[in-house]
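Handout, page 2. Input:
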Amino acid sequence: MSHTELICRSEYITMRDGVRLAISAWINKAHEKNTDKRPAVVVTTRYWRAMAFQQDKPEFQPYYPHASYFWVRGYVFVVADARGSGASYGRREVEIPQAEIEDISEVVEWAARQPWCDGRVATTGQSYTAGTTLCSSVNAPLALKLGVCRAADLDWYRHIVAPGGIVNRWFIDSWGETTAAQD
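Output:
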C-alpha cells in the first residue's frame, strides 16, 4: 500500500460533561465510499495524537506506522488526545484521573458507532497508554472486546521514580518539563 492511500480523519467528540476530545481515525481513502466494516483499535494518549507540520502528509504523523500496521490486518486505528492534553479540552489535575477513565469508555462507544466499524473495539498501548488500556476495562462498554496492555507502569515509584532505590532525577525533571509544556 502506498503512503498516500491512508488518511487521517480528525474531529472532536463531546464527553458527558461537555468537554471535547480530539480524536483521529485512520482509514484508507478508497474505503471512504466502501460499506465494508472493520473492528477498531483505540489508543488514548496524553502525548499528542497528531502534530502540525509545514507539509501536511499523513505519513509524517507519529501514529501513521500504527495505523498502517492495523489497516493491512483489517482494523481501523483510532487515537484520542486525553482530556487536557494535545488538542483536547479540559484540565489535567493528575495522571489518569477518574474523568479520563470515564472518557475512555465514551471513546470506545463512539468508535463502535462509526460507519466504518463493525461494532467491535479493542484498546492497546504501552507505558502511559498501557495504563489507559487497563482503565478501559473499568467501565467496559459491550463494544470493548479486548485490551492489549504492554509494559504498564504499575509501580511508578519502583519502576520510574526510584528504580533500585535511587531517585531518577533526570527522568523526573525531563518528563515533568516535557509534559508541562505539552499541557
